[in-house]
Amino acid sequence: MSTLTLKDGTGLFYKDWGSGQPIVFSHGWPLCADAWDAQMLFLGQRGYRVIAHDRRGHGRSQQTWDGNSMDQYADDLAQLLDALDVKDAVLVGHSTGGGEVARYVGRHGTARVAKVVLLGAVPPLMLKTAGNPGGVPKAVFDGIRQGVLENRAQFFKDLPTTFYGFNRPGAKVSEGLRDAFWLQGMSAGIKPAYDCIEQFSETDFTEDLKKIDVPTLIVHGDDDQIVLIETSAKRSVQLVPNATLKVYPGGAHGLAQLEVERFNSDLLHFIEG
After folding, report:
1. What is the CA radius of gyration of the chain?
2. Is the C-alpha dihedral spanning 127, 59, 233, 169 positive or negative?
3. N or C: less crowded end of the chain, CB within 10 Å?
């Protein structure tokens, strides 16, 4: 196991495989780096260096009481890229990880970055506010917090139903994906997982998106029940100066696991383009 000791003493687990141009992955909530296994194997076999970390408090990283904030997540990513001397990287972020990538660019720039991919990503802002009337009401996120506090084991059993669109007519339900989601979710510390709900739902990434000055691919399913496309991807593509939006018709939130072949192909095409 590879672990980086961050400046505040937190142990950050990461995978660093292969050689070549680095592709760096940031996972969604409440998962860990394992959510990217299919992409890391695919790209690693094609001559790329693939890197993914468990966000602080999640997976095999240290379970932190403090510091579970989007700014700190971005700074942790910066410390990892600095420690590994990553250059000309493609940053790929899913859901909360998309916010982490955007905030990284907002705080640290693109000196180490060649391209960005945002998959089912939370930016620019999930929460319904006066300035974001199409957002999700705070009561929904309060319900997520309640689920985590009262019985997160059951909550993480239930959440994949909408995360992967298993509730849609004709959906092919994978118990393996459901079990993997539960296992990864339960590996997170309850305090970091709880804190992260506020971070992915209430952080405004508008100004961060405007600072992404490298080619950017935004991928989103138009039936994403977790991060609604109308208030996320369709707004983000208008804010990122050099962005392209690719919509997966009928696509759910967990596209990296559900649409492995298609997403891998689109990812490779963008990297090589």
Report:
1. 17
2. negative
3. N
Domain edges within the chain: 2-272
User: Is-contact 35 98, C-beta < 8 A?
Assistant: no
How far is the C-alpha of 174 from the C-alpha of 184, rounded, in Å?
16
- Taking the alpha carbons at both ends of the chain, their separation in whole angstroms is 33
Q: What are the beta bridge partners of residue 115?
A: 90
The pair phi, psi for residue 94, each rounded to 5°, is -110, 130
Q: How far is CA 97 from CA 51, 206, 233, in A?
A: 14, 15, 14
CATH architecture for residues 2-272: 3-Layer(aba) Sandwich (3.40)
> Which residues have a catalytic role annotated?
95, 224, 253
Look at residues 181, 218, 224, 204 and name the one whose alpha carbon lies nearest to residue 131. Answer: 204
Question: Quick check: 121 and 254 in contact, CB under 8 A?
Answer: no
Distance CA(160)–CA(206), nearest Å, equals: 28
Report yes or no on whether pTM surpasses 0.90.
Answer: yes
Cα angle value 71/246/122 (rounded, 5°):
25
Specify the DSSP class assigned to residue 232.
Answer: T
Q: Rounded distance, CA 202 to CA 196, Å?
A: 10
Distance (Å) of CA 207 to CA 26, 31, 105, 212, 243:
20, 26, 10, 9, 15
pLDDT, tens digit (0-9, with 9 covering 90-100), for 178-217: 999 999 999 999 999 999 999 999 999 999 999 999 999 9
